[in-house]
Amino acid sequence: MIRRVLPVPRHLDLVTLGCAVTLSILGILFVASTTGGGRLQGLATRQALWVTVGLAAMGAAVLIDYRTVLKLSFAIYCLSLLPLVYLLFFGESIANVKSWIRFGGFQFQPAEVAKIATALLVAYVFENEDDARLKAAALLKLCVIVGIPFLLVAVQPDVGLASTFLPILFVGLFFGGLPARSWIALALIVLVLAGAGWLVLKDYQKERIGTFIDPEADMLGAGYQVRQSKIAVGSGGFFGKGFRAGTQSQLRFLPVQHTDFILAVIAEEWGFLGVILVLGLFAALLLRALKLAQTARDRGGVFLVLALSGMIFFSVTMNAAMMVGLLPTTGIPLPLVSYGGSSVATTFLAIGLILGVEYRRFANA
Amino acid sequence: MLRVRENRRALTRRIEVARVAVGTVFALLATAYWYIQIVRGEHYFTLSEENRIRSVKITAPRGYILDRHGSILAENEPAYTLHLYRRESRNLGASVDLAGRVTQLPRHELEARMQRGLRDPEFLPIPLAENLRIEEVAAIQARAPEHPEFAIAVSQRRLYRYGGAAAHALGYLSEATPEQIRRARQYRLGDWIGQKGVEATYERLLAGTNGERRVIVDSHGREISEDNRIEARPGQNLFLTIDLSLQQIAEEYFRDRVGAAVALDPRTGDILALVSSPAYDPNWFTRRVTAREWGGLLANADHPLQNRALQSAYPPGSVFKVFIAYGALARGLVDPEWRVFCPGHAPFYGRTFRCHREEGHGWVHLRDAIKVSCDVYFYNLGRRLGVDRIGEIARGFGFGEATGVDLAFDRSGLVPSEEWALKKRKARWYPSETISVSIGQGPILVTPIQIARALSGLVQAGRLPTPHLFLAGQDPRTGRRLRYTPEWKAGTPLAAEKLAIVKEGMWAVLNEPGGTAYLSRIPGVAAGGKTGTVQVIGRESTPRPGADLRKLEDHAWFAGFAPLDDPRIVVAVFVENGGHGSAAAAPLGKLLLAGGVGKPIGPPPQPAPSLERAGFSPAALRGGAFRP
Fold first, then answer.
1. Domain limit, last residue, from B133, B158, B183
2. ipTM > 0.90?
């Protein structure tokens, strides 16, 4: 229908685009709901600005041929790692972690850009791997490509943010065709690493995981967040308490509600209907993206779409599970909805790349 | 193109798997939200309501305590507490610094309070300092823009206007003990509750009923708005029977003495004055007693917390003689003209008993025996009566039983009998003991308030009033009053002409040369009285080496009434280790009796703060409006 009215290019996928834009508008709306008045006022305007920046980045990503970008992906990857290395030495701690670069009044998380670059390079690697089975050389490359930014972010130390690189690795392993035997070996390695990781984790991180296992143990510390978030979600009921009428969020019982816990705000104010709306939009976006992946013209495109969708899928499910205490709170924002310029802009960039793959489906090389 | 598709068959299959997986994960998430929002929704809704709505107690203002003429003895004043809301503080160290600069409290103490407070839920403020002075409150408020973490909480604090005046009648407030909280549900930890005195007796009347505010708070515990409000019902104002000017006369006398005094209106049982010395300042408790102050109070050998007027039971000494005389007359066991020759001593049961006047009183009859307090006369009378009849007479005056006063620790003392000797003492009663008891020595114990009540009964020919401090309660909002209905106990009645003989003897004590309290006679007032002296050690024995000689001095008693016809005031004065009753106790009796009949001796007492200041009308309560 829209196509009849607007001169929309034939291969621009409106389902993906529509879901993304709707989600970002919901985001601005609920950032406004939770930050009206007080020291957080004006964040909604800022979020809208970032959405605009994201839309511009998306447009650019659609227009530039992704195959050209894939060819340059190694350089992009290397460039994106530079700020992470810089942070390692000169980073300024914000909330215990050095993951932000500040310029002017803005803060930016270079790890978000690095994720896109990593996805690009992984896609580039798989463009030339046309075997049904993953080869050892490709496996090694994959591990190194994902491993470097993962470790750089993990030592910031922001394990939550670092973990968002893992879906790229997983996409490579699964769609690249890792044999069943290797999956078992991998599971064992993960178990061992998890044990070792427990020894390396910072106290506050252990506390969060401990809280996840027994939320009642520390009711007023880390357990407070999970508890308040569950109360917010649960008290929303089916229809919710109404926009800007959530007591948990408006009276600030919810922690960092405009960033990590925005879904809890939506759940409280718009109830189960709001949750279904948000989760439904994400499900539609991701299922659509997977469909697009199937029809992409080349393997590079397929893997690019898969890697980027995997990233988004991982963040959405982690975040949504955090709200209701199914997973420990790890500080992963809800893509497109949570307040945060780097996250919104780079997610739109990712959407742009996905759309770009579809856009050039029938283009000649 | 075809080649590409063939190569991709595996990949396409994996993507199909992925689509199913993605769909499943989203379905599971939706299920989780459905469970929390729909199945458990009501539960979480309740929790969210509990989160945002907090009940705040409205403490009912405690009723004032006033004397019978409306002078305020106990009132309330605002007390300021410094609260720290830790979530508002940018730097807790800097906050403590400021609190230290303003309050001058040592830093380590503030730190300790902070540490204690940090254990409480985050939304609760930490009380850093209590009882701020008004300048300190102003200093904190001036810094509010840079230090939003501080708040001043205003509460009501009990203020006893006259410090230690009437302390034992008033009692004091302290934080409710866990045991008191268990007994009375409405108290919570940190609530103030009356301890001892009328503060305890009339706790429910004075305390009123606390109200409640349901307020909507944010996660900082800061109030956003009020949801619902139940007003507090203020406590009643309590008018005591105490006459502050008489009370102050007695307290002045006891400034450097140990003992007690009670003044009663014999017609109603109104306690006009009730003194126990040494006293304490009830304001100490309201300002939170420090461990050192408590230690000082408890270690004081004279036990300031003890109410001697009710708790100190001693032999009545010669004061007892008037009750014996009355009892014997009432039973027809003595003729007022019956005479005894007093040579200064007399033998009974193989032992010589001495009169306090070595050269003797010569021939004495009942009236003169009271006037000169002749021991030999009462030895003979006592022997005629026997211990059981003496006990019966004593009980007829309320000795050996609690007086029923509206204060705790109302002791009953001891009245002997042969049965008591066998049952409690496990030794038979010796007839020679009867001789001692007949002059109020030996195993007979009475309290000052019992003496005052007994004498009230005596002057009213056997009508024993119940002493009480409650005069009236007044609802401060409606002005409605609750009045005291006097209570009585019927004692032994006595014909007017016989009572006149006893009263005349007591008049002679004060007003005839040779009377034991002649030096305390009151010009222009027909008063009667009786002195008493209680030996602490036997006359012949010598004190142990190292004993506190002051503690070996005799105890002094005086009991008196005025005026002679239709007495309006009865006093009982007891001075511990004061020496002779005529020298140590009678002078206060004189001052109280004179004051009680409206002819005070000496400078008038300091003006009392007026009742109008407190905002209620005393007119109806003045001038003994509550007397029956």
1. B158
2. yes
Residue numbers in A near B122 (CB within 8 A): 220
Q: Which single residue is written with the structure tokens 């909480």? A: B153
Sorted by sequence, the CB contacts under 8 Å of residue B286 that are 6+ apart come out as B157, B158, B159, B160, B172, B173, B192
In a domain, B549, yes or no: yes
Neighbours of B228 (CB within 10 A): 10
Yes or no, beta carbons of B15 and A290 under 8 Å apart: yes
Question: Domain boundary at B158, B189, B214, which?
Answer: B158
The confidence score (pLDDT) of residue B212 equals: 86
The reply to whether B152 and B266 lie within a common domain is: no
pTM for the structure as a whole: 0.68
C-alpha–C-alpha distance, residues B155 and B286, integer Å? 12
Asked, for residue B206, whether it belongs to a domain, the answer is no
Are A230 and B36 within 8 A, CB to CB?
yes
Q: Is the pLDDT of residue B91 over 90?
A: no
Domain ranges of chain A: 10-36+44-359
Domain contains B607: no
Separation of alpha carbons B327 and A312, rounded Å: 106
pLDDT tens for B183-200 read 776 777 667 889 889 999
- Residues from chain A that touch B34, judged by Cβ atoms under 8 A, are 272
Selection from B167, B165, B179, B156 nearest residue B58 by Cα: B156
Structural domains counted in chain B: 2
What is the residue range of B353's domain?
A: 244-596
Catalytic residue among B71, B277, B312, B318: B318
Residues 6+ apart with CB under 8 A from B97: none
In a domain, B105, yes or no: yes
User: Which DSSP letter does residue B558 get?
Assistant: E
Among the residues of B72-189, which ranges form H helices?
Answer: 92-103, 107-118, 134-142, 167-170, 178-183
